[in-house]
Automatic annotation (TrEMBL), chains A, B:
This is Hydroxymethylglutaryl-CoA lyase. Gene3D superfamilies: Aldolase class I. Residues 25-293 form the Pyruvate carboxyltransferase domain. GO terms for molecular function: hydroxymethylglutaryl-CoA lyase activity; metal ion binding. It holds the Pfam family HMGL-like. GO terms for biological process: ketone body biosynthetic process; L-leucine catabolic process. SUPFAM superfamilies: Aldolase. It is an enzyme of class 4 (lyase). Keywords: Lyase, Metal-binding. Belongs to the HMG-CoA lyase family. The keyword Zinc does not apply. It comes from Actinoalloteichus hymeniacidonis. Its EC number is 4.1.3.4.
Length: 318, 318
């Protein structure tokens, strides 16, 4: 069990007075990839396709569909190529896929996808464990992936994981995180998603990191946030990010997923809980909440366990 | 099943730019009363006393200990008098108890308690169902309770439930809620706790209601907030309330409790999840989180079910 408290978590970062909220938010739905990759129940290709079809029907316009990672690491997503070949074609719906390296890019290009995401690390420890290279070496690893992808006309998103704390080092220095993120963007990514992979962040930390990015010339228009709800902070942190001007938020239908490093069942921020807050704040998002709740109730049945989303529990009758 | 969406929930209330955070927050721990009263597993007097002793040892200074409600309504708290007689005496720790009416006050005075809370309603429907009287009649019912209590030197807190929505009427008018709350305070209460009894509120609503109170002459120094996490919004709403200047927050260790009207297992804001956020924001609260998590792990064993708190799940190894 990770001793989060001994690592000085949560880090103490008072929050300054924040700003106004955006009028519209893009929800980047990561359930099919970040959610399912951590689920132990193996789903069939048909179930995954039905999940994507339902998410699109609920109005979600960015669906991170799968990952071209090695099937040995993530057996759940071993059917990535078949999935991409059979994706429901819905006008206005984008299907980015995660690509860990050049081999993954080859498979993605072969499958004819239009948009990829790469997955970098904000800490040395996580880089060594998850990328099998050092912090500094990751840029060399990603450089040919991004340049080949952009040359082929693909859009590239960068993920930066462990931005607010990791289970080995505690809290990384915000200036260092921002510098790492800027270098990933400079490779040719059009957006960077800041991940709280173990869910330890609090709102002051979010605002501080966004300021650190601003100081290295990266504005909130190029940033997204990706919170996990391990410590119950995901929605508060999202509120802080929205207040700071961020308008792309990652979430997972039904709160699917989790982090294997946090030894807890708690997954991503649930899309339904996010939508409830956005609805209440009058922020546009394009999602039909009732349709989405029905989808998550259906997915919970496929996985044989209740949804982690509070909204799904309250509205879904499950 | 209540059709929350047909009731127009969540209500759309955009949030203005909020203010700075308080440097210190008083946590009003409601687990022993609001938490346990909704738990179906009956606990012994010894377990309840041990719970209170552990909560005090964890640094919580306001413990709402029990309720002098009719044992027919809340069998779990039928031992209120014995509990009060055996309360652990800890310097600086207050033990308010809930008192529904004059009969309850008689029992509370007999037990020698120093502090009571009354439980009013912000909506007509909930008043009729929970108080067996109309909205307007509740003041006549509470008037002798509060005047006799204050004459006897007792401190009196007012609860105002269903401030942000109820399962029959939808969202009440903020000006009407503020007027009802002001009248409860005018009876002689020194603090009013604004309850989101079914957990539907979002941050803009919180700020709007606090402004409505200000407009009827009730400042944030006399207000507390009481959020349920039914729709996952409790901590975000708390953040909004803190930003508006509120510095007393109700919560329940381990997220104990629930609302019988919401047909969901989700209870109060978990004290641990609140403490994690306050810790991260550098806001003083006096609570030892590790001790509190151990307490909630122990209580979860007594109740035979996992804690609803994300922090307890992540840190408690349960």
């Amino acid at each position: 069990m990770t001793d989060f408290r001994a690592l000085g978590l949560p880090q103490r970062v008072p929050a300054p007075e924040p700003g106004a909220l955006p009028s519209r938010v893009t929800i980047w739905e990561v359930g099919p990839r970040d959610g399912l990759q951590n689920e132990s129940t193996t789903l069939t290709l048909d179930v995954k396709l039905e999940f994507l079809r339902r998410l699109a029907a609920a109005g979600l316009s960015v669906l991170e569909a799968t990952s071209f990672v090695s099937p040995r690491w993530v057996p759940q997503l071993a059917d990535a190529a078949e999935l991409i070949a059979a994706l429901p074609q819905v006008p206005g719906v984008r299907y980015p896929v995660l690509v860990p390296n050049e081999r993954g890019l080859d498979r993605a290009l072969e499958a004819g996808i239009a948009e990829i995401a790469i997955f970098g690390s904000a800490t040395e420890s996580f880089a060594r464990r998850n990328l099998n290279c050092g912090m500094a070496e990751q840029f060399a690893m990603f450089e040919p992936v991004v340049s080949r992808a952009t040359s082929a006309g693909l859009r590239v998103r960068g993920y930066l994981s462990m931005c607010f704390g990791d289970p080995w080092e505690g809290t990384p220095d915000p200036a260092s995180v921002a510098e790492t993120g800027r270098r990933l963007l400079d490779l040719g990514c059009d957006q960077l998603s800041l991940g709280d992979t173990i869910g330890v962040a609090t709102p002051g930390q979010v605002e501080t990191l966004l300021k650190a990015f601003d100081e290295v010339g990266v504005g909130v228009d190029r940033l997204a946030v990706h919170f996990h709800d391990t410590f119950g902070q995901a929605l508060s942190n999202t509120l802080a990010a929205l207040r700071a001007g961020v308008s792309t938020v990652d979430s997972s239908a039904g709160g699917l997923g989790g982090c294997p490093y946090a030894e807890s069942a708690t997954g991503n921020l649930a899309t339904e809980d996010l939508v409830w807050m956005l609805d209440g704040l009058g922020i546009e998002h394009g999602v039909d909440l009732d349709e989405l709740v029905r989808t998550s109730v259906w997915m919970a049945r496929q996985l044989g366990r209740p949804s982690a989303s509070r909204v799904v529990t309250a509205l879904g009758g499950s």
